[in-house]
Design goal:
There is one protein chain. With about 140 residues, the protein is an alpha+beta fold. It has one domain: Beta Complex (Metal Binding Protein, Guanine Nucleotide Exchange Factor, Chain A). About 15% of the residues lie in helices and about 35% in strands. A 6-stranded antiparallel sheet has the order 3-4-8-7-6-5. Strands 2-1-9 form a 3-stranded antiparallel sheet, with no helix packed on it. A hairpin with a 7-residue loop joins strand 3 and strand 4. The radius of gyration is 14 Å and the shape is globular. The termini are far apart.
Length: about 140
């Protein structure tokens, strides 16, 4: 699902696409604004264990914290929960029909972050894997 599917009016922060495109590298822009995905095991934060806060690369909203990050082996940074229920928006994603996934967007600006999966059996408190593209995040170390 692309950003255009949800509409910019649905989010508190309105981003100027031209300014964002000039600020970001091509892959980050394609992921954040058009729902693309970085290749597995290539992202900067896949194996990072730095303590800190992960923020939206487009608008700097706080999304995840390092204490909820875990190694899932899936090839993307994995978290078991966002910083709060209001940090993200969940959208039904039928782009791989018949498989239905749940897309994760920044609740502040509507940028695509990745997908959330449930019931995979990871030993985490929520039984969820928030599979997030590294290029959609900025890690602010503590």
């Amino acid at each position: 699902m692309s950003k255009e599917d949800t509409g910019p009016a649905d989010f508190p922060v309105k981003l100027d696409d031209a300014a964002l495109k000039s600020k970001l590298d091509s892959l980050s822009y394609q992921v954040l604004r058009h729902g693309a995905t970085e290749r597995p095991f290539t992202g900067e934060y896949v194996d990072t264990e730095t303590v800190g806060v992960y923020k939206c690369k487009a608008c700097s909203a706080e999304l995840f914290r390092s204490d909820t990050k875990f190694h899932s082996g899936c090839g993307w940074p994995s978290f078991y929960a966002p910083t709060g229920d209001d940090a993200v928006v969940l959208i039904e994603d039928r782009s791989l029909a018949p498989r239905i996934r749940t897309e994760v967007q920044c609740a502040n600006c509507g940028s695509h972050l990745g997908h959330v999966f449930e019931g995979e059996g990871y030993d985490v408190p929520t039984d969820q894997r928030w599979c997030i593209n590294s290029v959609s995040l900025i890690l602010e170390p503590k």
